[in-house]
Amino acid sequence: MVFSSGFPGAKVGGMKATAGDRLLAHAGGVEEKDRSGVITEAQGSYGEQPRVARSGGGHSGPEFPGPDAVDVPT
Fold first, then answer.
1. Count of helices and strands (H, E) across the chain
2. How far apart are CA 11 and CA 23, in angstroms?
3. Selected residue with higher pLDDT from 67 and 47
């Protein structure tokens, strides 16, 4: 099955992240906003979860992206 994220070059499902990639999580509801951040470290084997990401607000911490998230390589 192929999914489209709406972002050129984005990886969806089974994401293999590297430091510097953008992490985009789509809103879960009408009143919520999409979230984005920059991956600073991929701690899992082969770039899989967990990852450490820095959000637009400056918060940094572990991320376990769900099916609503896409990785946009740099």
1. 0, 5
2. 10
3. 67
**What DSSP letter does each residue of 14-45 carry, written as one string?**
S----TT-EEEE--SSTT---EEEEEEEE-SG
| Identity of the residue numbered 24 | L
- Non-local (6+) Cβ contacts of 34 within 8 A are 24, 25, 26, 27
| Six token digits for residue 68 | 């609503």
pLDDT tens string 4-63:
444 444 554 556 788 899 888 888 788 888 888 898 988 877 667 778 889 877 889 888
In angstroms, rounded to a whole number, what is the distance separating the alpha carbons of residues 37 and 44? 18
Yes or no: say if 53 and 40 are a contact pair by the CB < 8 Å rule. Answer: yes
- d(CA 28, CA 62) in angstroms, rounded, equals 19
